[in-house]
Amino acid sequence: MIIGLRKALSAVLSLGILMTVPVNVFAEDTGEDIYREIAADEAYCKASAVLSGLGYIESTEDPEAIEGTVMREEYAVMAANVLGLENGGVASYEDVDEYSSDAAAIGALTAAGYVSGYGNEFRPYDDVLYEDALAVSVRLLGYGGAAAAVEEPYPGWYIAQAGRLNLTHGVSGKVGEPIKYREAIKLMYNVINTGILEIEKIHFDGRVDYRESDTTLLEEKHGIYKANGIVTANYLTGLMSPDPNISENAVKINNTVYDVSESSILYGERAYLAAMLGYNTEYYYYGENNENELVYLYKLDKNNEISISSDDITKASLSQIDYITDSGRNKTINLSRDTYFIFNGKADSAAADADLMPESGNLRLVDNDNDGRYEIVFITSYEDYYVSSINNDDKIIYDNDSERGQSRILSFGNKEIVVF
To answer: How far apart are CA 78 and CA 372, in angstroms?
Structure first.
């Protein structure tokens, strides 16, 4: 892999408290339309998360970069990572530093016929034109040989093939203009999930017959497969009860346990994995020889959820929740008999009506299949402590609630407290 990863998905705090904090880098109201526009581009957000999660790009949170253009060397590195090309010798271009980190990518792609320069120049800092990005993407899928049999395939034939293969689905751009970073990321996501062109037969006269395959680029180059499914258990609990067979580096999806690959960005990120419980996900895993080894997991946009503060709940039972909306309206949500209840991170098979009215906390209802019915209710119930002092050595918090006339001790001992 030519680039490394830089993202951490969770943090371990002092006293062994593990916090699960969902983050949306574009959620802050800055008053700038660009933040809202990027956050609203679900295709980009998904593509960026998946490509960075698989290790093929370094994600960015800079809106100017996201709305900016892509240099030729940047696109070359991205393409080389997607192909799994480690190196290809020194790039023989006068304007490419042979000792630069990008030289290996440019050299490998040039040697394999995926990219070309302008004589002795590659022009690495020039913007990638929209049609150039499409041409490289089509070649990545194995269509370079087929293009050689076409008279003047650039750019018309490549553009037509990109459209026919749905590589341009959700991607905007104009011929003759640079492609934006945001559109390039969506294009590359489409590439890795598209079937490749395979050689079916080579004739004695040199003619080649090709066959379009259902095998995606990810499957062919990395042995990675994509699927969708609902996370039914994590290391803390299942939807109905805890599952002792699931480790901290594993989840159960559609009732199949997936261990996280040690090479995955998610390895050791148990907070992220635990937070996926109950959600419909798109996940990537190693197949065949490394069956059920998880590489990446992403929460799909088809999940609908609502959070209700305990202060807004007027009445609640296992079958119905009445609450006041932010606009001051009274609203009722009906629950089915099949609803799962998760109380402070653990399955609550014996949930009672009173559990749905915490004194301090909230309810989070999840509809994971977009059918208008909430399948899971996550109940968060807080117990307030007025901290008077802390013993770091023995991991003890001393509470002095003068208003209630209480004095309590919260001792962690050797245990780790997981807070959701």
So the answer is: 39
Tokens of 118: 């302008």
**Which residues fall within 8 angstroms of residue 291, CB to CB, at 6 or more apart?**
none
Residues 6+ apart with CB under 8 A from 22: 275
Distance between CA 290 and CA 187 in Å, rounded?
28
> What's the one-letter identity of residue 309?
S
Written as one letter, the residue type at 287 is G
Residue 138 tokens, joined: 């089509």
Helix or strand holding residue 218 (H, E): helix 217-222
Q: What is the pLDDT of residue 14?
A: 27
Contact between 128 and 106 (Cβ < 8 Å): no
Cα of first residue to Cα of last residue in the chain, in angstroms, is: 35
Half-sphere exposure of 171 (CA within 13 A, CB side): 30
Peptide bond into 155 cis (omega under 30): yes
pTM higher than the cut 0.85: no
What's the mean per-residue pLDDT of the chain?
85
Burial of 294 (0-12, 13-18, 19+ CB in 10 A): buried
pLDDT single digits (tens) 213-237: 999 999 999 999 999 999 999 999 9
The DSSP 8-state label assigned to residue 126 in this structure reads: S
CB 162 within 8 A of CB 170: no
CA distance readout (Å), 202 to 140, 383, 391: 20, 72, 75
